Amino acid sequence: MTLPQLRRLLADITPLRESAAFRRLWAGTTVSSVGSALTSFAVILQVYELTRSPFAVGAIGVAQMVPTLAAGLVGGPVADAVDRRKLVLVTSSCLAAVSAAFAAQAFAGLRLACQLAAGLALDRLSFQIVLTAGPALAGVIAAAPHLGLQACYLVDTVSSAAALYGVARLAAMRPHGGTIRPSPRAVAEGIGFIRRSKVLAGAFLADLNATIFGLPVALFPAINAERFGGDPRTLGLFTTAIGMGGLTSAAFSGPVKHVSRQGRAMLCTVAVWGAAFAGFAVAPSLWLTLGLLAAAGAADTFTVVFRGAIATAVTPDQLRGRVMAADYVVGAGGAQLGNLEAGALGSLTSPTISALTGGLATIAGAVVIGLALPALTRYRGRPPYHPATVPHATAPAKT
Fold it and tell me: Is residue 200 part of a domain?
């Protein structure tokens, strides 16, 4: 393979090279999100250690569902009406305070549980770096005798400063196309636009299908305990394997910007995601388990990039905040429902049956969505954007 051919495979870093603001934002949110990954790992492990119940781990999603829906319903109109940079600064500061509260309860011993495609691919690369480094680091910290879960929460609190720096240095991001008043009518307008757009609705349904049926994170502690002795470091490898697969596909995401049939490609990657988790459910060895999780992570990177490209391309700027809020609800809310579904079914049957049926249901769902919404499979993405035409992007929130 020649050097020019290799460069076409690698992720397009033009947004990082040409935009200092994007560079600061990307670096800051990446550092901060590593801290968030530690908290996510620690919460799952802490709840499982307290209860030994996959259902209890899945029920974490119930606690997160109400604020997730509230953020989607209220946050979208607000994002369309105010300076988005200031909004992200406020929400990031609140997240830092929550991380500090997690650290406090752990120390106290409380028993509480721009080019469009290139920019999206770089954002996903950041996510995969976090997904790879965060759980592995969290597993080591949680297993260390003088650190433990308290240190995971504390690192997350400190790392929030990086995200705040990246957002604070952005230019003002005032709404375009006139201002709106956050109201139920504004929410309904955003929902109505999504319902009328068969392509956008199909992309969101495909993602919900993947996260509700094919994301058995709530089963990870139980499967780790049953098959591999329950070592926190092994549990960390589960999520790290997903991150390594996603990191590899994100690093070699250059050809993604040339994919025109993004809807059809998204359905294919959703099916691969489901097949990988179905295989994970019955894998007999640790190495095969990790390999299948890596395959799921690789498919997920492309799924998210295609969904984001479709949502951004078909949404007018005056509705962007509300549609992106719905996109957040789909991604975060679907994952929490998926954890609850997987945990509940795992408790009623077994973790293996829950993961296997969820993976197979994801494949079937992708086929049904493709047949029921042909507009999604026929959709052709726009040509790559010139940097001057790329819309402003809101900084990703910590998860």
Answer: yes
- Strand (E) or helix (H) holding 283: none
- Indicate the number of domains in the chain: 1
Return all residues near 234 (Cβ < 8 A) that are at least 6 apart.
139, 224, 228, 286
The CATH number linked to 159 is: 1.20.1250.20
Asked, for residue 397, whether it belongs to a domain, the answer is no
Residue 262: φ, ψ to 5°: -70, -35
pTM for the model stands at 0.64
- Kindly state the tokens that stand for 189: 């307008």
Q: What is the band of 283 on the pLDDT scale with cuts at 50, 70, 90?
A: very high
Residue 29 lies in a domain: yes
Confidence band, pLDDT 50/70/90 cuts, at residue 305? confident
**Token pair listed for 185:** 């009518």
Side chain identity at residue 104, one-letter code:
A
User: Which pLDDT tens digit goes with each residue over 148-164?
Assistant: 777 777 777 777 666 66
The Cα 250–Cα 25 span in angstroms is 18
The predicted-structure confidence for 321-341, as pLDDT tens digits, reads as follows 788 777 777 777 788 888 888
What is the distance between the alpha carbons of residues 68 and 326, in angstroms, rounded to a whole number? Answer: 10
Residue 229 falls in which region: left (phi positive, over 0), alpha (psi -120 to 50) or beta: left
Please enumerate in sequence order all residues whose Cβ is within 8 A of that of 83, keeping only pairs 6 or more positions apart, or say none. Answer: 172, 173, 174
Q: What domain range is 83 assigned to?
A: 10-383
Which tokens go with 78?
A: 């607000």
Element (H, E) at 215: none
pLDDT value of residue 264: 92
In a domain? residue 391: no
User: Residue 183's CB: how many other CB atoms inside 10 A?
Assistant: 12
Q: Around Cβ 276, how many Cβ atoms within 10 Å?
A: 24
